[in-house]
Amino acid sequence: MKKRLLVYVLHHDSSLSIYVGKSSYGLLRPREHAKPSQIETHPNWPVSRWVKKLQDQGFRYTITVLEDCSSAKELIAAEMFYIAYFRSVGARLLNCSDGGEGPIGFRHTEETKRKIGDIHRGKKLSQEQLDALAKANVGRKMTPEQRQHLSDVKRGKPRPLSVRIAVSAAQTERMKNPIWKAAFTTSGHTPEATAKRAAKLRGRKLSAETCAKMSASKTGVKLSPERCALQKQALRTFHARPFKDQHGTVYKTQAEAAEKLSIDSRSISWALANKKITHGYSFTYTDVQ
Question: Average pLDDT of 11-31?
Answer without folding.
Answer: 91
